[in-house]
């Protein structure tokens, strides 16, 4: 049985497959410029034990390019978490990290149109993503990914059904932006997209398939659990309440 990648490995995969527009170091933090691409590409992360002075430096750096001060924290970073809490930051969007050997999801034949590889994205993929809130800024994140990558589009009952993005780093594929149109849900299409992603990973020399998902997304967590994906890590964000509506 293949050994599962660690949470540390998945954080590296996340950075590589869903990359920020720019990254700079300020004190004990890496500062990301996401250019509107969402929390994952906009959050500061700690490189080592960070104190209040480091936090202030990070806040100043993020504000310098008109970005909301936002921090991503692993569950073990309790001291930094407490510092931010005392500074008025609220905990938002707890996230669970899932992974599975790709071969474990690639053992079934799939309907031909259930998940068709396509990159650059087709117009219908952009429309499906837009319906789920994945707009041009996130498409730019996909285009920034440097390693092997592809999109998938699904047709079901002769109609557009869903889309997803997959990129790979160090043999680990990570699925992003998996969206199913509301009219096509509860038909197993998301499972088809995940299984087709696993096949693509194997075909391109990879070994594992991964995904990250907010705890609040009950349906998605149920999907990944039903596919027997393993939880290997968790993280969350800290954001000041005044900025809650500023960063989606």
Key words describing this protein structure:
Aminopeptidase, 30% helix, 248 residues, alpha+beta, 2 domains, 11 strands, globular, 7 helices, eight-stranded mixed sheet, three-stranded antiparallel sheet
Provide a descriptive summary of the structure in words.
The chain is α+β, with helices and mostly antiparallel strands and 248 residues long. Helices cover 30% and strands 31% of the residues. The protein has seven helices and eleven strands. The strands form two sheets. The chain has an eight-stranded mixed beta sheet, with helices on both faces. The chain has a three-stranded antiparallel beta sheet with strand order 1-2-3. It is globular and about 55 Å long.
CATH topology of the largest domain: the name is Aminopeptidase
User: What general form does the structure show?
Assistant: globular
Per DSSP, the total helix count is 7
CATH class descriptor of the largest domain? Alpha Beta
Please identify which CATH superfamily of the largest domain we are dealing with. Answer: Gcn5-related N-acetyltransferase (GNAT)
Q: Number of DSSP strands?
A: 11
Q: From N to C, what is the helix and strand string?
A: HEEEHEHEEHHEEEHEHE
Low-confidence sequence ranges:
none
Produce a short descriptive summary.
The chain has helices at 7-17, 52-64, 78-86, 123-131, 136-144, 189-203, 218-226, and strands at 22-26, 29-33, 45-46, 70-74, 90-101, 116-118, 149-156, 159-169, 172-180, 208-214, 230-239. By secondary structure, the protein is of the alpha+beta class. The protein has two domains: 20-94 and 235-246, no CATH class; 99-234, 3-Layer(aba) Sandwich (Aminopeptidase), CATH 3.40.630.
């Amino acid at each position: 049985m293949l050994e599962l990648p660690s949470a540390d490995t998945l954080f590296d995969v996340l950075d590589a497959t869903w990359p920020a527009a720019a990254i700079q170091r300020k004190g004990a933090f890496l500062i990301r410029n996401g250019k509107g691409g969402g929390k994952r590409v906009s959050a500061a992360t700690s490189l080592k034990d960070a104190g209040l002075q480091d936090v202030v430096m990070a806040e100043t750096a993020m504000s310098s390019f008109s970005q909301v001060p936002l921090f991503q924290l692993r569950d073990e970073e309790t001291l930094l978490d407490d510092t931010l809490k005392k500074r008025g930051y609220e905990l938002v969007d707890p996230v669970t990290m899932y992974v599975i050997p790709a071969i474990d999801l690639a053992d079934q034949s799939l309907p031909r149109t259930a998940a068709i590889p396509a990159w650059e994205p087709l117009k219908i993929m952009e429309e499906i993503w837009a319906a789920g809130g994945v707009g041009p800024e996130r498409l730019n994140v996909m285009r920034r990914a440097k390693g092997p990558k592809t999109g998938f589009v699904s047709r079901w009952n002769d109609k557009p059904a869903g889309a997803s993005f997959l990129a790979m780093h160090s043999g680990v594929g990570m699925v992003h932006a998996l969206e199913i149109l509301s009219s096509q849900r509860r038909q197993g299409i998301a499972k088809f997209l995940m299984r087709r992603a696993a096949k693509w990973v194997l075909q391109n020399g990879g070994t594992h398939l991964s995904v990250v998902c907010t705890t609040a997304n009950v349906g998605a967590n149920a999907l990944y659990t039903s596919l027997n994906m393993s939880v290997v890590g968790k993280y969350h964000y800290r954001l000041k309440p005044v900025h809650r509506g500023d960063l989606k």
